[in-house]
Write a structure and sequence with these properties.
Number of helices: 8
Structural class: mainly alpha
InterPro entries: DUF4924 (IPR032574)
Radius of gyration: 18 Å
Number of strands: 0
Number of domains: 2
Helix content: over 70%
Strand content: under 5%
Length: about 180
């Protein structure tokens, strides 16, 4: 909750990846709030009232996961909404004559996106979600200390660059500083 709200303000891409990780952590603890409280919340070095707030945040996420049917897999609607917002912004940036650098960065990234789609047998998703799926997959591989090929690392570097630019544009838009 503390980290999520900070990341949401600073970098929407990091926020979304963090929230996907939180979903997986909740699943790993089998949506058991007492275990999450014991293993995660209790370890925060914050006053008890803040710990209570963090526990309530986890409880609300667990409740949403149950109601939305994403207990086994998938993402909460609040996280899907971030993808929708970023996709809408992405499309607007591509259409804008004031954003040629954004378009160039995207078209430099597009071959990697196409290649990723070809490699995964998943149902088709938009370019932005494909980028996030790729970065999250790499994050999971790194956590498992698995080897990542140079080709994949190069692709992830370009995708990261692209998403960092999109995140910056999102931040500018939210601040009212983006003119398309």
């Amino acid at each position: 909750m503390i980290i999520a709200s900070q990341k949401r303000k600073e970098n929407i891409a990091e926020y979304l990846l963090y929230m996907w990780q939180i979903e997986d952590i909740i699943r790993a603890y089998k949506l058991d709030i007492d275990t999450i409280d014991e293993q995660i919340v209790s370890k925060y070095n914050v006053p008890d009232d803040k710990k209570k707030e963090i526990r309530e945040w986890y409880e609300s996420l667990i409740d949403m996961m149950r109601r939305e049917g994403v207990v086994e897999s998938g993402h909460l609607q609040l996280n899907k909404n971030v993808i929708i917002d970023l996709t809408d912004l992405h499309l607007a940036l591509l259409k804008s004559p004031k954003e040629p650098f954004y378009g160039a960065t995207f078209f430099k990234t597009l071959p990697y996106i196409v290649e990723l789609r070809a490699k995964t047998g998943d149902e088709p998703v938009g370019e932005i979600e494909t980028c996030f799926n790729a970065l999250y997959g790499i994050l999971m591989l790194r956590l498992q200390k698995k080897e990542i090929s140079e080709q994949t690392q190069a692709a992830m570097k370009q995708i990261s660059t692209f998403l960092a630019l999109l995140s910056e544009k999102y931040k500018q838009e939210k601040a009212g500083d983006l003119e398309l």
